[in-house]
Amino acid sequence: MLDWNEYRSEVMQRVGDLGKLAPDTLKGVMALGNAGNKTNLLGAKVRELIALACAVTTRCDGCIAVHAEAAVKAGATEEEIAEALGVAINLNAGAAVVYSARTLDAIKQLKA
Prior knowledge:
Elements lengths: L3 H18 L1 H17 L3 H16 L2 H13 L4 H34 L1
Helix pairs in contact: 1-2, 3-4, 3-5
């Protein structure tokens, strides 16, 4: 398995490198990430649980590394994280069902 602490450190270093080359781009991404902090309607923990579920559905290891740490710091329990991951699993399965239906539609059109 991956050493997530080392990986997160390496990713953040490379993100820092990107920030030096494209500071406005990174500022824009940071603004998006911090937008929920202003209203705080969901709270940090819920936002991080959502971020983890999204990280799984987008298959982003860097996002997993960063948001896993943030979720734990925000007080998320392993059980809460597992529930959020269950949502991600369901959405991925649901997407496979939808794309299976689309595939069948394509096959029907080919046969017509």
